[in-house]
Every structure is written in C-alpha cells, then in structure tokens.
Write a structure and sequence with these properties.
mainly alpha; 5 helices; single chain; 80% helix; 96 residues
C-alpha cells in the first residue's frame, strides 16, 4: 500500500511539472503539446519526447535530466495504472 501511495505521489508531481513545463511554452502551444507530451511520457521513451512533442524547443541538460527522472517515475507504475491513465488521456482528448 505504501508503494502505491509513493507511486501516486510521484505521478501527481510528474503531471504537475508537465503542466507547468508545457504551459510555459505558451498558451497556444501548450494546448496542442500537452496531450502529445503526456501520451509520450506514458507510452513512449524519453528520446521520443525530443523527436516528437518538444522537438521544436531547445531542451538544456538539466531539463533533460528532469524529464528522464519523470519518465523513470512513470515507468515504475504498473501496466494497469499506465493503461488507465492512457484511457483517461484519450477520454480528455475526445472531449476537447
């Protein structure tokens, strides 16, 4: 149970940081980038972030390290939790 709580906390922090990061890119860009960015965080690799959703932005080494740490947190989630989050993201995308 404690491991699940830690995973939930890590995911919450990850999502908050993601929203802040994407919002700082500009309102229009964030609206388009956030779903793709989250999808890649959930299902893709860290490198796919740089060739996909954030490819148009210069990402410094410190930010790369932070993104790698966020990806590691997500990768520690159970497959069922990742699937549930992907389904939620798909639901949000269809309602947007």
């Amino acid at each position: 149970m404690q491991k699940m709580a830690r995973s939930a906390l890590k995911l919450t922090v990850t999502l908050l940081i993601t929203v802040v990061l994407c919002s700082s890119l500009g309102a229009g860009s964030a609206h388009e980038i956030v779903p793709s960015f989250l999808q890649t965080l959930l299902e893709g690799s860290a490198e796919q972030l740089y060739t996909g959703p954030i490819s148009q932005y210069k990402v410094d080494d410190l930010t790369r390290a932070a993104l790698a740490a966020l990806k590691e947190c997500i990768d520690e989630l159970s497959p069922e939790h990742v699937k549930a989050l992907v389904n939620l993201l798909k639901l949000v995308r269809t309602e947007a």
